[in-house]
Amino acid sequence: MRVPFNDLSSHHANLQPALDEALLNVVRTSAFIGGPDIAQFEAEFAAYCETPDCAAVGNGTDALEMALRTLGVGPGDEVIVPSMTFIATAESVAIVGAAPVVVDVLADVHTMDPEKLEAAITPRTKAVIPVHLYGQPCDMDPIIEISVAHGLHVIEDAAQAHGARYKGRPVGTIGHMAAFSFYPGKNLGALGDAGAVVSTHTDLVTNVKRLRDHGRLPDDKFGHSLIGRNCRLDTLQAAALRIKLPHLDNWIRRRREIAGTYNEALRGIVQVPEEIAEVESVYHLYVILVDDRDGVRDQLREAGVASGVHYPTPTHLHPAMTRAYGYRPGDFVRGEQIANHALSLPIFPEMSDDQVTYCVDMVKQAVGHA
Ligand SMILES: *Cc1c(COP(=O)(O)O)cnc(C)c1O
């Protein structure tokens, strides 16, 4: 049997006629920039996130950058980021001219360790970016409590966590602002790059709508009130996302079902991704820790099972980060440990029960537990 890591072709197969129609409609009307699908998708995604508004932007990295700029983060400021995440979290901080300050993650759930937060705060700290890594919400209560005590802004990096919940609340409603990515492989993916910012504060979202379009709002064609950028979302992508969003909760349900099967079959054999109390992960990734990660990965590949590594380098040890900020191996041992032992198993909504069973068997075999 062969099991791919993800299968976007089968993901889109049933949606093909609806996608064709939606895309053709944009072409027929030539509403490529700022067409009606943009405002409609923003309203629909805001409703999904239970926020009053949403600003669609070019990708998830733009979303983080626009949120940072909206909150006034810039040169001379510091922003706290976790040791295990995709580079974009720290990169967006550097893009606005601020310095990313790394804190280590929790050993079991791989998200920001709230207990490490306080010691990393300096008079220059302006914001914290907790990352809901792999689709699992961070332990937000202590992060918010510490941030409030120090007057810091909190930007949720929800790029992997559309629809995840923390104590009943959807991610994106807990911090001041939140950034989402719709990169094709994300749980909600566009047909190319796409992203969004949401917030419970409407004025902050409005500011992003300005920044993404040369500092102006749509009803004010030459009223450039801010120096902005061009990082608008294409209408074609908004049209595609509108077709896919109504299916997201079903896809999440299937991901959680697969994760449940993996957990039951593999707990005690490898370190499985446990959910912290009162959170609902959406399992963008299913990441186990194994001793001989590269060996297990090779064996799985020989058995026809594709796997991934998220991520092989912790935030502080990317060459760009060591060069600019002087970080060294040993600075954040849990992030480094995860980078060396993490293995992502296939998890996608179209995966069959047989494929899940086969993956379980092959993992057991690869770690000598057949
Ligand atoms: C995907 C991702 C991003 C960046 O999103 P893009 O749309 O690829 O720019 C940021 N943070 C995390 C945690 C991500 O997984």
Write the layout of secondary structure elements.
Layout: H1 8-13, H2 16-29, H3 36-49, E1 53-57, H4 60-70, E2 78-82, H5 88-95, E3 99-103, H6 114-120, E4 125-128, H7 140-149, E5 153-157, E6 165-166, E7 169-170, E8 177-181, E9 195-199, H8 202-211, H9 235-244, H10 248-266, E10 279-280, E11 286-289, H11 293-302, H12 319-325, H13 333-341, E12 342-345, H14 353-366
Parallel strand pairs: 2-3, 2-4, 4-5, 5-8
Antiparallel strand pairs: 1-9, 6-7, 6-10, 8-9, 11-12
Helix pairs in contact: 2-9, 3-9, 4-5, 6-7, 10-14, 11-14
Bound molecules: pyridoxal-5'-phosphate.
Describe the structure.
This protein is an alpha/beta fold. The chain contains 14 helices and twelve strands. The protein has helices at about 10-15, 15-30, 35-50, 60-70, 90-95, 115-120, 140-150, 200-210, 235-245, 250-265, 295-300, 320-325, 335-340, 355-365, and strands at about 55, 80, 100-105, 125-130, 155, 165, 170, 175-180, 195-200, 280, 285-290, 340-345. It has a seven-stranded mixed beta sheet, sandwiched between helices. It has a three-stranded antiparallel beta sheet with strand order 7-6-10, with no helix packed on it. Helix 10 (about 250-265) runs parallel beside helix 14 and helix 11 packs across helix 14 (about 355-365). Pyridoxal-5'-phosphate binds near residues 59, 61, 157 and 160.
